[in-house]
Design a protein that fits this description.
15% of the residues lie in helices and 39% in strands. By secondary structure, it is mainly beta.
Length: 375
């Protein structure tokens, strides 16, 4: 009986294989028109039924990491991101001063990467003031490994993953140089999933460390910066971690005058209670008509992973939305990650509902069979 089934099964399988091979209609399922990938040697363009986005491979419009400047389109409203890109990645860092050794750290391309020495010892008032406005002065940080990926990452070859109802892109890169006493080679991985039918993407940044640190963190822009002239491109900001559990809405007029990161609208895990949600968003505005658009929000799905974050106005009309994740002890061979949702929402309540649906996750995995968030 078992032999008969085996022979019959093999014969049926062979016949079916012949049908599949001989029938073009069955040999290859038609591509889903709602999930398109357009790739060339410079970038990868993802187009779903709700969004468009470009991920650079080389020669970016602004930064190499994350979603390229000006390419994140909400098809429902026609609005785009108005900064320098989304989920842009920086150095691998830790708390502390680099004053003793920053000038020793020179990138292979000759770039001096001393992060704060020129600020701490700077005698030029203009340069010193710029550094204060860019970085604040209350919490010193230093590089563990470089380069600053958004600025000096070499060309990459991301992997495209196609599933039934999503497209994903995975990018990896190894840091190339390190601070004295450390070694280079930690790996950064960014995985971005674009689900069909949604106005957002899901993203994870992960670090696999080759160094020990008592307080290692990864710096990024969540969701991204805002470039504006007295609020012409956005009407208000929403920060969930200030003014109680519902957060605070801040009018654009608060950002007409530059101020440093440690003056207002900041968050530090060691000084503040961990919020119920960690959401930062801005309400888009049409600069021509003044008409209101959707919210563009960045949702960090596990609030406790946020080490420090700020929303500050630099000179030159740019709101910087830096976020630093992890900030805890790491040993060589260990990893840490943070998961985010970034996209367009019609209301704060919609952002909160989406957050509550996915809250508590720090990892994202994806293959051809599907994608999922993990804790």
């Amino acid at each position: 009986m078992n032999t008969f089934r085996g022979v019959f099964g093999r014969a049926a399988a062979a016949a079916l294989a012949g049908v599949l091979i001989s029938s073009p209609a069955l040999a290859q399922a038609p591509a889903d028109p709602d999930l398109q990938v357009h790739e060339d040697d410079r970038s990868i363009k993802i187009e779903t039924d709700r969004l468009e986005a470009v991920i650079p491979k080389r020669d970016p419009k602004h930064w190499m990491t994350g979603i390229e400047k000006g390419t994140f389109l909400d098809k429902a409203t026609g609005f785009r991101e108005v900064g320098d890109g989304l989920m842009v990645i920086d150095w691998l860092m830790e708390a502390g001063s680099d004053e003793a050794w920053a000038e020793q750290v020179i990138a292979p391309d000759g770039d001096g990467v001393g992060r704060y020495t020129w600020y701490e010892n700077e005698t030029d008032p203009a340069r010193r003031e710029y550094a204060r406005m860019a970085h604040g002065s209350s919490h010193r940080k230093r590089m563990v490994e470089g380069p600053q990926l958004c600025h000096r990452m070499k060309p990459v070859q991301p992997e495209v993953i196609r599933g039934k109802d999503f497209v994903a892109v995975r990018t990896t890169y190894q840091y190339e140089y390190a601070a004295p006493g450390r070694k280079p080679g930690s790996t950064w991985t960014q995985l971005i999933v674009f689900p069909k039918g949604e106005r957002y993407f899901v993203l994870m940044d992960r670090i696999d460390s080759v160094n020990d640190s008592e307080e290692m963190f990864l710096r990024n822009d969540t969701p991204g910066c805002v470039r504006h002239t007295e609020g012409d491109k956005f009407s208000e900001m929403y920060l969930s971690y200030l003014s109680g559990p519902e957060g605070v809405r801040i009018p654009s007029s608060e950002f007409f005058t530059p101020f440093p990161p440690d003056l207002k609208f900041g968050y530090r895990r060691d000084l503040q209670r961990t919020p119920e949600r960690f959401i930062r968003a801005y309400r888009l505005r049409d600069p021509e008509t003044g008409g209101e658009g959707p919210w563009l929000g960045g949702l960090t799905l596990e609030p406790s992973v946020v080490y420090e974050a700020w929303c500050s106005q630099r000179p030159g009309g740019i709101i910087v939305m830096i976020e630093e994740v992890h900030g805890r002890p790491v040993r060589a061979g260990e990893s840490f990650s943070a998961a985010h949702i970034v996209g367009y929402f019609d209301s704060i309540q919609e952002m909160q509902a989406t957050y509550d649906r996915y809250r508590g996750h720090t990892r994202l995995v994806a293959d051809e069979s599907g994608w999922r968030l993990e804790k």
